[in-house]
Write a structure and sequence with these properties.
Helices cover about 75% and strands about 0% of the residues. With about 70 residues, the chain is mainly alpha-helical.
């Protein structure tokens, strides 16, 4: 049982380490990637670190945009 649990944890860590993680700051510096990454998140039903960071960056950019009357 312990071996199976350790194997599962190791597999999860390896899969997580392989993902190219992007921070909110990355998305703020590359705003053109926000829409495409969020579209993929929504299409595939993902809720990953990158999806969350892209959402935060999008919100921050929208909140700084000048409001039109």
């Amino acid at each position: 049982m312990k071996i199976a649990l350790c194997g599962g944890v190791l597999a999860l860590l390896l899969l997580t380490a392989c993902e190219n993680t992007k921070t909110k700051e990355y998305y703020l510096d590359h705003p053109d990637e926000i829409a495409s990454d969020l579209s993929e998140c929504q299409k595939l039903g993902k809720n990953t670190y990158n999806c969350n960071q892209a959402t935060l960056a999008q919100y921050q950019l929208k909140s700084k945009a000048p409001q039109t009357p």
